[in-house]
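Researcher: Please translate sequence to structure tokens.
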Amino acid sequence: MHELSIVMSIVDIAREYAEREQATTVDEIEIDIGCLSTVEMQAFDAAWKQGVRNTVLDGALKTINRIQGEACCSRCDEIFPIDNAYDACPACGEHFIVITKGKELRVRSLAVSY
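Model: Translation complete:
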């Protein structure tokens, strides 16, 4: 389950930020997770419950933004929404596409207390 390692990396980011800012508590965290990323959300939620225990994120309000997939066609430059990395361009049927959104996995913001 790689979701636990993702959660632990997020904990490390939050801890480093809190230490740098000399904050005592992380009150809120906002995370972007793309729908085309390999993160399985049920596993992520389960890993979150265990992974943040007794850390700076224990008790923090967590907001997850799910970023929908988007691609650009390599043939006709059509920009279109996608649900799967192997979706074809709806304009010309081309399968060579460049995914422009939906693979994100990042901490967008942290709110801390001093």
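Researcher: Any highlights?
Model: The two ends are 34 Å apart (CA to CA).
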